[in-house]
Write a structure and sequence with these properties.
The structure holds 2 protein chains of 2 kinds. Chain A is an alpha/beta fold. In chain A, 33% of the residues lie in helices and 26% in strands. Chain A folds into 3 domains: 5-242, P-loop containing nucleotide triphosphate hydrolases (Rossmann fold); 247-335 and 421-500, Rossmann fold (3-Layer(aba) Sandwich); 344-419, no CATH class. In chain A, helix 12 crosses helix 14 (375-388), helix 14 crosses helix 15 (405-417) and helix 15 (405-417) runs parallel beside helix 16. Chain B is an all-alpha fold. Chain B has a single domain, classed as ABC transporter involved in vitamin B12 uptake, BtuC. Chain B is 78% helix and 1% strand. Chain B has 11 helices and 2 strands, in the order ααααβααααβααα. Chain B has helices at residues 2-28, 36-61, 69-114, 118-137, 154-174, 176-186, 188-193, 198-224, 235-246, 258-277, 282-312, and strands at residues 142-143, 226-227. Chain B has a two-stranded antiparallel sheet. The relative contact order of chain B is 0.19. Classes of the chains: A alpha/beta, B mainly alpha. At the A-B interface, helix 10, helix 11 and helix 12 of A face helix 6 and helix 7 of B.
């Protein structure tokens, strides 16, 4: 290879107990190169990245940076050596201003007589944000008041502020809106031109094929293949990731909308801070998609449908039962199920067992006389969830935090599916799960639809919305700007045009 | 396989502590520990702690704190005792329980609607209720209806105790109230998204805690044969000690188990009694109590951090 290698890792190994998270992984990144790293949840990508970024210690193996041996002591050390990383979990201190977070751990250069010159720091921080084209974030703002997307941007800028030779991005694009995504792609190609290397992890295969030069595929802690991006297809990548053939289209195959006459749920003039005058009707066996940019109010609308969020005016009605939904409990009693957007903060008790998490959504189902929550029924129901959704686990007593993201989401969704709820509200049900689980969730949705269950699918993944929905509502700035029917002519471009 | 050993070991850890304490005092005190009178005395110590714990565990499980239990039981006992002078035993029991219940509800309402930290609310109540007791009794002991002293017999106490403790065990372990309380302690936001009426269950927990304080006040007044303005001083701390030593997590959640509270209460009762019969002076006894509790807490946290936490979170 004529190009100079910037970073090389050889025979990296990492064990977690008996699990071989990384087994002899070797990777080399030349100058001016964008590398994609992809694999199912638990395939070892994040482990590899955390070792390169100095977050986790390797068990064995060697790393070289610019030809020299590289042994990061911590993530700050990695940054100083020229490796900037944005990790999957947010790594900012909420209680500090943005500028402080940017220079956390390296504020010495702003010190005079060991006293921090905060104004110099802010000035420098502002300059850094401006340099990368994100001047819309105030450096004096408290980090905790930022949205998730803005926090991601701060982390990105922090990684960039090291002027890294190697920039590592773990699942960042999912948290970004379309315009910031484009900005990021601009930054990446700019770095490429300057001869830097970029290592990119994302679940969005199409995006990865489009951006990267070479894609490395991991499975079960090993690198199974490397493919040139311009000579491969998303289908091939998927096959390599899963290790078996997946149907190219895991979405619905029919191209016509199909649903019953009966109206299961109707939203009437819903108004709240984040959305105004939302009205729609959900029919029996219908999948209704709601999409929009992250600040368009789609997630808040989902919360309002399940009455977790108080609305200012309007109502959510179940016409057949002639009931207005006012509390989440009422919604559950009326056979509604809800998969919220943030799985680990809103849906699941992560330090509790599968059984308790399943029971939480089905208390009335396992209740007998004298309020007795039958242990037999509870474990039977959890067993059903595990079996039906093929969750990889030791049993119902497994603690959620020991499950991979995909399996957690299966618990989250499965506890409603086994109860045969009438109406399901799914907010980004496939966020952060690999395609094996993704296709399984779609199968579940299609199966539910066939059984006459109505689904509201809120998502920012357009292929999913187009692939699954009978009708789709596009929201912008808290209002419904367009409602479209399922058809072959529906394209992402057409939707994006309306969304922005 | 190693991890299972540690997890199981942690589960039986409080039991082991209890057994060690019993063994030590059996040896030190000779046969004195196992005489009938001494066992009665241990039971007498354990009963109020268990009853208080049976109420407070709901609050602790939710991740809240109830500091007001000692003062509350003093107020319930005082008002009940005064009522007994005119209305006798029935009035005494009714008023005591009612005061406990109402103060518990009041605690819960303050907490749920003002959204103040439970520690602050109940700390304020601890001081305020004690002040009311001092005001009513004028700082003097008050004598009560003589039939109340008749309650202080093991033949009455033990059955009542067993019924109460079993009822609370059932509610805590097998009903929605207990289950939802554990969930609130795990993650309140998840609870809200799963249809739990958080306010309702917070108020319920404090109500149960207050009601149990009412029951404890009945036994306490019966035992001292009158109302003393100092009764129940530091009772809440004893109950909390019992819970935490038994292994109920301070932050609440699904690891809060009823048996842990009972084990902790027994440990405390045996420890206090053992030190007394071993003729350790009161000051030294308290010091030893403190040290032993520290050791227990340290060991528990050490074992948890060293061997268990990582194992639980491991991928399957």
């Amino acid at each position: 290879m004529d190009k100079k290698i910037i970073f090389r890792a050889e025979n990296m190994k990492k064990y977690f107990g008996a699990t071989h998270a990384n087994d002899n992984v070797s990777i080399a990144l030349p100058k001016g190169h964008i590398r994609g790293l992809i694999g199912e949840n638990g395939s070892g990508k994040s482990t590899l990245i955390s070792m390169i970024a100095g977050i986790r210690e390797k068990d064995s193996g060697t790393m070289y940076l610019n030809g020299k041996s590289y042994e990061p002591k911590n993530s700050l050390d990695a940054g100083k050596n020229g490796i900037g990383t944005v990790v999957q979990e947010l790594g900012l201190v909420d209680g500090l201003p943005v500028g402080m977070n940017l220079f956390l751990g390296r504020t010495e250069k702003f010190e005079k007589m060991r006293i921090l010159d905060i104004n110099a720091l802010y000035k420098k921080a502002e300059a850094v944000f401006k340099e990368w084209g994100f001047s819309d974030i105030s450096v004096k703002q408290l980090t905790g008041t930022l949205s998730v997307e803005q926090k991601k941007v701060v982390e990105l800028v922090r990684a960039l502020s090291f002027h890294p030779d190697l920039l590592i991005l773990d699942e960042i694009t999912q948290a970004l809106s379309l315009n910031n995504r484009e900005k990021l792609i601009g930054i990446i190609s700019q770095l490429k031109k300057r001869g830097k290397a970029i290592l990119l992890v994302t679940h969005d295969i199409e995006e990865m094929v489009a951006i990267t030069d070479v894609i490395t595929i991991m499975r079960d802690g090993k690198i199974v293949a490397e493919r040139d991006s311009d000579k491969t297809t998303p289908d091939e990548i998927k096959r390599l990731m899963v290790g078996r053939d997946l149907n190219g289209t895991y979405y619905r195959e029919d191209k016509e909308p199909s649903y019953g006459e009966e109206i299961k749920l109707s939203a009437v003039q819903l108004c709240e801070e984040h959305f105004h005058n939302i009205s729609f009707e959900l029919h029996k066996g219908e999948i209704l998609g709601i999409c929009g940019l992250s600040d368009s109010g789609i997630h808040e609308l989902a919360e309002a449908l399940f009455a977790v969020r108080k609305i200012d005016s309007g109502c959510v009605k179940l016409p057949k039962k002639n009931i207005t939904i006012n509390t989440p409990k009422q919604a559950m009693d009326m056979n509604m199920g809800y998969v919220p957007k943030d799985r680990d903060k809103q849906a699941l008790m992560v330090n509790d067992s599968i059984e308790n998490n399943v029971s939480l959504a089905a208390v009335e189902l396992v209740k007998e006389h004298f309020g007795f929550l039958s242990p037999g029924k509870r474990s039977e129901l959890s067993g059903k969830v595990i079996e039906r959704l093929m969750i990889k686990t030791k049993g119902p007593n497994q603690i959620i935090s020991g499950l991979s993201g995909g399996n957690r989401q299966k618990v989250n969704l499965g506890r409603w599916i086994v109860q045969n709820k009438d109406i399901l509200i799914l907010d980004c049900p496939t966020r952060g799960v690999d395609i094996g689980v993704k296709s399984y969730i779609y199968e579940m949705m299609i199966d539910s639809k066939k059984r006459g269950i109505s689904i509201v699918l809120i998502s920012d993944e357009l292929p999913e919305i187009i692939g699954m929905c009978d009708r789709l509502m596009i929201m912008k700035d808290g209002e419904v700007v367009k409602t479209l029917e399922r058809s072959t002519g529906l394209t992402e471009e057409a939707i994006i045009e309306v969304m922005i | 396989m190693k991890k299972n050993i540690w997890i199981n070991l942690q589960r039986i850890f409080p039991f082991m502590g209890l057994i060690v304490i019993i063994l030590i005092f059996t040896i030190i005190s000779g046969d004195k520990l196992w005489t009938k009178n001494n066992l009665l005395s241990i039971i007498n110590t354990a009963i109020p702690i268990c009853l208080g714990g049976a109420g407070m565990i709901f609050v602790a499980t939710q991740g809240s704190t109830d500091m007001s239990m000692g003062s509350l039981l003093a107020l319930a006992g005082t008002l009940g005792g005064l009522a007994s002078i005119r209305t006798g035993l029935a009035g005494f029991i009714t008023i005591s329980l009612l005061v406990g219940l109402l103060c518990g509800i009041f605690n819960g309402y303050l907490l749920a609607y003002l959204k103040v930290e439970s520690l602050m609310v109940t700390l304020a109540m601890l001081i305020a209720l004690r002040a009311i007791v001092s005001f009513i009794t004028n700082g003097q002991a008050v004598f009560v209806d003589s039939r109340i002293i008749g309650l202080n017999r093991i033949g009455i106490k033990l059955p009542v105790f067993l019924v109460l403790i079993l009822a609370m065990w059932y509610i805590f372990t097998y009903t929605k109230i207990g289950f939802y309380s554990r969930c609130i302690g795990e993650n309140q936001e998840v609870g809200r998204f799963s249809g739990i009426n958080i306010r309702k269950y917070k108020i319920l927990a404090f109500t149960l805690s207050g009601l149990m304080a009412g029951f404890v006040s009945i036994f306490t007044v019966g035992k001292i044969g009158g109302v003393s303005p100092n009764m129940g001083n530091f009772f809440e701390l004893q109950v909390m000690t019992a819970m935490f030593v038994g292994g109920v997590p301070v932050t609440g959640g699904s690891e809060s188990k009823y048996y842990k509270m009972i084990t902790g209460a027994l440990m405390l009762a045996f420890l206090q009694n053992g030190l007394t019969i071993s003729l350790v002076s009161a000051e030294i006894a308290e010091l030893i109590q403190g040290v032993i509790l520290l050791v227990v807490v340290f060991l528990e946290i050490f074992v948890r951090n060293r061997f268990i936490q990582g194992e639980l979170a491991k991928e399957v």
